[in-house]
Amino acid sequence: MRLLNIRLIVSLILGITLVSLVSSYLEVRVQKRSLRQDLEHRAEVLGESLAENVEPHFGRSSRRLQEIVLRFGNREHLAGVAIYDREGNVLAVTPGLAPLLATQPHAAAQALVNNRETSEFVRTESDALNIYAVPLHKNAEILGALVIVHDAAYIDAQKARIWRETFLRVLVQVVLIALITLLIVRWSITGPIARAAQWMKALRTGRSSPHFSGSDLLHPLAQEVASLAQSLTAARSAAEKEAELRDAAESIWTADRLAVYVRGRLKGSRLFVVSNREPYFHVRSGKTVQALVPASGLVTALEPVLCACDGTWIAHGSGDADREAVDQHDSLRVPPDDHRYTLRRVWLSKEEEEGYYYGFANEGLWPLCHIAHTRPIFRASDWENYQLANKKFAKAVLEEMDGIEQPVLLTQDYHFALLPRLIKRERPDARVAIFWHIPWPNPEAFGICPWQRQLLDGLLGADLIGFHIQSHCNNFLQTVDRTLESRIEWEHFAVNREKHSTTVMPFPISVEFPEPAQASEDRPSQQERAALLRELGLEAVYLGVGVDRVDYTKGILERFLAVERLLEKHPFYRGKFTFVQIGAPSRTHIKRYHDLMAEVEAEAERINWKFAAGKWKAIVFRKGQHNHDEIRRYYRSADLCLVTSLHDGMNLVAKEFVAARDDERGVLILSMFTGAARELRDALLVNPYDIEQTAEAIQVALEMDPENRKARMLRMRKMVKEHNVYNWAGNLIGHLCELRLETPETKATGVGMGTTPGPGATRSQRRLAPATTRSMISVAPAP
Ligand code: G6P
């Protein structure tokens, strides 16, 4: 730093000196010119008046001429005057200059030749002079020349004075500028840099907050350093975590572990995901565009996976401002504030959306697969649009895969039953999986779909089909067995058809498990609960929570009835227990969903009215989209969480609730008809159709001994932690990448390409995969 200062100051001194010298030189030149002009002007004026006096006496009286010369000779700076005839002979001269002007000066000769005043500056050994010669006339005839000599030494003195002053000025300037520069450097550069360096050091060692309070000048740099330090901290804590886990001989999946694992499996290729619902949709609100996250279990599960692996997610652009947010390839990087992967949007016409999404997928397949007593509707026009939309998405997927060898595709859900075959047909080198996020019913139930053969054929284009639980796999294989010409390898859970093999396996989906560091930063759940109740304007001693899309499969009305029954049977809880239901409006364009919203609101209203007492409410229905942080506050504030789906593939609300309870409190009441019930055995399992039983479970939950409650929550947390969403993705991608794809030879022989659960298989995969025959398969219909 000192060397830097010296260099800076020396450069400044040289610069200033150079500039001052050049400007002084110019100033001296200007001054010299103006002093000379001034002198010449004086000589000219004097010359004119002398000439007037001399000319009448020229050739008549030398004495008179000498008198005139003597009279004028004592002016300021005037060295002398001389008069010459035409031949150059001196006629009169000031005594002091006689020796110098004995011979006619050059200027006088020039004046005579040119008949014009002539000036010249001459330097003798001791003097600097100006010689000004004026031709003398009589009528038009040149008589001789008058010479006026001025002493010009004072001009040199002036020049010397200017140089002296310049030198002094430069000296003072240099000292002042050097001093000021030193102070500026110290105040605005050296000081802030030293403070910033201290802050960076503290940040690096984790002793400082990432917020930089120093100079504005360094803010952009500080921001970059802070995010670098954050990445370092995250990397360090991931490494520590890994080390801890290795130490504990555990193998918890983390985002980092998944990223490394998937990179290894992809071998330089790329991961693609296709789903109907996009992870972010853009909506216009006034003049601004907002990015929102939809309420979808699928999105909740896949977002962390995509963030970990940086792939491409292809989905329907459904937001009203979605087109404004994409580039020329209909793509954008997301999450909006931390670009980690690419979202490619596919546009659908109103008619396509109506037929494919609302119609075939959600009025047909959704109720068909969820046995919740809503009749599926199958319209031929919807089927047409379903096929068209599958083709449209397949085209977008193929475009994205273009140029990528052996791409890996994870197709999501019942919206895309036809897509695996469409992709495989064009890209046999692609590894294609489809994960079915909803239940698969028994063959009789599925058989009512008029296009079941085409759906199964489309699905069997995939190399791997995943369901949440084994019984859904079993139902699927049974359906294939009864519907299509195929060979089922029950011992490998594979379907061989037209020389292609499809493996069918359970992969129970899950959620992220928050890191303890993040959890401990939060306020204790009791404080959080008091704040939440204040905000809601509620007076309650006990709090229950439910979080759902408002969907008839979720058993929301049954849940309300159970709350009502609890309050009827146990009046003690009136005025004390409040149940908050968060309900995100969903698919409201479909009449059944639209009506359901009204029913839910009316039912809450009815029950509240029945038990109305002061400020207390039995049920608070919070209609609307809530983000993850808002929902987490409810989870952490509640004594119990009610999940009463009439049928559900998995249900991630149950797992999210458990993951949020780092205080190890809270009781989960869980429908036995959810996939989650197979894993969360420490929940209070209920049949949601049995209102008495659910009401009783609420009472048991509220009165549960804290030790028992804690032990149950601890076991459930261990389960969710060990089987988190990274574990799910790792297993799914790992199995897909391990499958042997058909080569022309294997195709010719028709040898099966299945796989058995590998070392990475989840516990439930090992536990549930049956030893051999179909006789072991449970195909019990869901309720
Ligand atoms: C279920 C489905 C998802 C779907 C979600 C929300 O979880 O399995 O595919 O995204 O519901 O429904 P929506 O129709 O709004 O996408």
Question: Which helices and strands appear, and what pairs or packs with what?
Answer:
Layout: H1 2-54, H2 62-72, E1 78-85, E2 90-93, H3 98-101, H4 106-114, E3 118-123, E4 128-138, E5 141-151, H5 153-204, H6 219-247, H7 255-266, E6 271-274, E7 281-285, E8 288-292, H8 297-309, E9 312-316, E10 331-334, E11 341-346, H9 350-369, H10 380-401, E12 408-412, H11 419-426, E13 431-435, H12 443-446, H13 452-459, E14 464-467, H14 470-483, E15 487-489, E16 494-497, E17 500-506, H15 516-521, H16 525-536, E18 542-549, H17 556-569, E19 577-584, H18 591-611, E20 619-623, H19 628-637, E21 640-643, H20 652-660, E22 667-671, E23 684-686, H21 691-703, H22 706-722, H23 725-738, H24 744-749, H25 763-768
Parallel strand pairs: 6-9, 6-12, 9-11, 12-13, 13-14, 14-17, 18-19, 18-21, 19-20, 21-22, 22-23
Antiparallel strand pairs: 1-2, 1-5, 3-4, 4-5, 7-8, 10-11, 15-16, 16-17
This protein binds 6-O-phosphono-alpha-D-glucopyranose (G6P).
6-O-phosphono-alpha-D-glucopyranose binds at residues 277, 296-298, 413, 437-438, 549, 586-587.
Low-confidence stretches: 750-783
Strand arrangement, largest sheet?
A: 10-11-9-6-12-13-14-17-16-15
Strand percent estimate: 15-25%
**What's the end-to-end separation, in Å?**
78 Å
The chain-level structural class is: alpha/beta
Radius of gyration: 49 Å
Task: Tell me, briefly, the overall form.
Answer: elongated
Instruction: Provide the helix percentage.
Output: 40-55%
Average pLDDT, all residues: 88
